[in-house]
Amino acid sequence: MIESESGNPLRRKLAAHVELTSGDVRELDGLAAGARRYPAQTPLLHQSDIPESAILVLDGFACRYKFLPNGRRQITAYLLPGDLFELDLDFRLPLDCALGTLTACRLALIPRPEYEDLIRRRPRIARALQMARLTEAATLREWITNLGSRSGPERLAHFLCEMLLRLRTTGLASENQYSFPITQADLADTLGMSCVHVNRVLQKLRRDGLIELSGRRLTILRPEGLKSLAEYDGSYLKPAATPLRPSSSDRPAA
Amino acid sequence: MIESESGNPLRRKLAAHVELTSGDVRELDGLAAGARRYPAQTPLLHQSDIPESAILVLDGFACRYKFLPNGRRQITAYLLPGDLFELDLDFRLPLDCALGTLTACRLALIPRPEYEDLIRRRPRIARALQMARLTEAATLREWITNLGSRSGPERLAHFLCEMLLRLRTTGLASENQYSFPITQADLADTLGMSCVHVNRVLQKLRRDGLIELSGRRLTILRPEGLKSLAEYDGSYLKPAATPLRPSSSDRPAA
DNA sequence: CGCTGTGTTGATAATGGTCAATTCTCGTGG
DNA sequence: CCACGAGAATTGACCATTATCAACACAGCG
């Protein structure tokens, strides 16, 4: 309902990567047509399923995750509004991880034929999705780095910085605050720590005046402070590709 | 030199995914032509470089890694013989992480035009590389899980299991042993632990009779033991895709 | 009003990091 | 053949981070 004013979030995200035609835009907005609501913590796809629909997140947070035999759960990726869970075209591989909602979500399922059609008919959209895949992979590598090389507070700070940047690209975060309805237990499964420890690390960030988290809203009080704690460099998210066609104003001096 | 007998490792790897024509094979073997040797610990590409060659590993171990401002290094992926560092076709994105050798390597640089040509002229190869990309992404998610949810010994065991499976697909590992010329310091940067701790965890695996590591060769003494410690499930590496065309011998009973 | 899930706290223990010294290995030159 | 030196592996002592367990507070909701 709110989206009808600003356009669907996928369109907003892709428009940042490529220039879309009005036909592209119509097509993208059409995807949101059959959207449905799902409650929080709903499993959507199980590990080793072979998916037959792409899934577009219109509202709420979803994630990829794995359950381990020892009972622990690891979240491997967040799907925010505008993110698309894609099908692979050539193969039908069983999923290496499950998919589910974290918060209440509005999702559009896109059946395989329709999805394949879209890719074929809309080269600009295909291109933008290809770009999204690249930054997705870069994000996975960044998470590996985060989990492998940073302490608790740094990890959490890094995660919060990433969320800020990602939510901003679809207009869901203002300069320094966003809606953040994530459970501490889910944060624990994201950051590879116990939820007691998540709680304490959150308190530390609060004590240090870096963030304020009340209700389901996060405010970053000292953005530079948080970024420097996290050693955050968001360039993996906004790939400054070499310009496609240098505009006439890009004339080198001399 | 040794490869001339068994074919280049990329060809061996791709043949596992798709059926290659003799033309494909000739093309793949041709890639190894201009190969050169690089010493261990050689940087090949820096973070934020825009690469102009794909890189094929023929021999030795290379890796992707990031340096953090705090001095730590995190390895995010191993490139084993047969693995290809690919270029992206549509964009020229700056790299989100660096690339370098771990051990002495034999590498073939494939200039962008030649690489693009290969993809265009050889649909089967393109398809197989696409598959390789999918398992690469699955491997990144598995690493996230490994770093986030497993203890030191489990993490190391998991890593060793993955190496075994991956090296086997190119014939570089036997049933339960392989050449493993990796430094403990590099292992530490891989697994997100200090190298002192890596040393102690290795000793624990040895004490428990799971592995033997001497010289530069690893022997897995109790494969089931190591796998169960790691809770290892290698299905993310060998995606049992739904068969392309059921062969006539695949007739269901009744 | 009393669930139920979530957040918070304290006490205690396990895991893993840091520092510093020592040994081992192996290639190089004498 | 041996001495040497550099990098790698190993060890011990000590400390920091983080997990675990258990109790309690708090909020939203039927």
TrEMBL record, chains A, B:
<dbReference type="InterPro" id="IPR014710">
    <property type="entry name" value="RmlC-like_jellyroll"/>
</dbReference>
<dbReference type="InterPro" id="IPR000595">
    <property type="entry name" value="cNMP-bd_dom"/>
</dbReference>
<protein>
    <submittedName>
        <fullName>Nitrogen fixation regulation protein FixK</fullName>
    </submittedName>
</protein>
<dbReference type="InterPro" id="IPR012318">
    <property type="entry name" value="HTH_CRP"/>
</dbReference>
<dbReference type="InterPro" id="IPR018490">
    <property type="entry name" value="cNMP-bd_dom_sf"/>
</dbReference>
<keyword id="KW-0238">DNA-binding</keyword>
<keyword id="KW-0804">Transcription</keyword>
<dbReference type="InterPro" id="IPR036390">
    <property type="entry name" value="WH_DNA-bd_sf"/>
</dbReference>
<dbReference type="InterPro" id="IPR050397">
    <property type="entry name" value="Env_Response_Regulators"/>
</dbReference>
<feature type="domain" description="HTH crp-type">
    <location>
        <begin position="150"/>
        <end position="224"/>
    </location>
</feature>
<dbReference type="Pfam" id="PF00027">
    <property type="entry name" value="cNMP_binding"/>
</dbReference>
<dbReference type="InterPro" id="IPR036388">
    <property type="entry name" value="WH-like_DNA-bd_sf"/>
</dbReference>
<keyword id="KW-0805">Transcription regulation</keyword>
<dbReference type="Pfam" id="PF13545">
    <property type="entry name" value="HTH_Crp_2"/>
</dbReference>
